[in-house]
Amino acid sequence: xxxxxxxxxxxxxxxxxxxxxxxxxxxxxxxxxxxxxxxxxxxxxxxxxxxxxxxxxxxxxxxxxxxxxxxxxxxxxxxxxxxxxxxxxxxxxxxxxxxxxxxxxxxxxxxxxxxx
Amino acid sequence: xxxxxxxxxxxxxxxxxxxxxxxxxxxxxxxxxxxxxxxxxxxxxxxxxxxxxxxxxxxxxxxxxxxxxxxxxxxxxxxxxxxxxxxxxxxxxxxxxxxxxxxxxxxxxxxxxxx
Lengths: 116, 115
Description:
The structure holds two protein chains of two kinds.
Chain A: E1 5-7, E2 10-13, E3 19-24, E4 31-37, E5 44-50, E6 53-57, E7 65-68, E8 75-79, E9 88-95, E10 106-107, E11 111-115
Chain B: E1 3-5, E2 10-14, E3 19-21, E4 24-26, E5 33-39, E6 46-52, E7 60-61, E8 64-69, E9 74-79, E10 88-95, E11 104-105, E12 109-114
Parallel strand pairs in B: 2-12
Antiparallel strand pairs in B: 1-4, 3-9, 5-6, 5-10, 7-8, 8-9, 10-11, 10-12
């Protein structure tokens, strides 16, 4: 069964460094998403991406965040200058585009980001 | 703004018993979609069940079923014949066409299935 994959599974970085989190969505999906979950808290939406542009973004998704679909398979989240409070689990998800954002989203296993 | 509330932070159930997890939501929209996701200790987010608001029939997936009460804005999850592998955090989530793909999650309910 097709699944969303994410790399790395765990990333440790120093405060102020740039990190890139990578995702390979399910191949026939056209909508892509990033969420984050701070330990012990609920899952928070960061951004949705469709047709090579951001569809929706949250207040959390400020100028230090960016997303990109560099090729036909990868979807990346870049954090330019990491802060301690960026430490969280980051989930990528993808969905079809039949319902234009209301389709079922399938999640990857997550990347645990630790900022020291 | 749309909100999702899960009022039970923790629940426990004996193996083979039935348990119901509660979820309420607030929206002014009439057409929307509701989900339950399971997050086991591995922290993977796994879809359990999906309900379309325009459907009156409650969704069912094997041992999992929902009680969708649109007027009351309630969306509870019933797990029948609970198994040890059902131990996980369960999140209720909401989306609609107007959300641009954003899933709005509740705070989660941590379910423990005891042998």
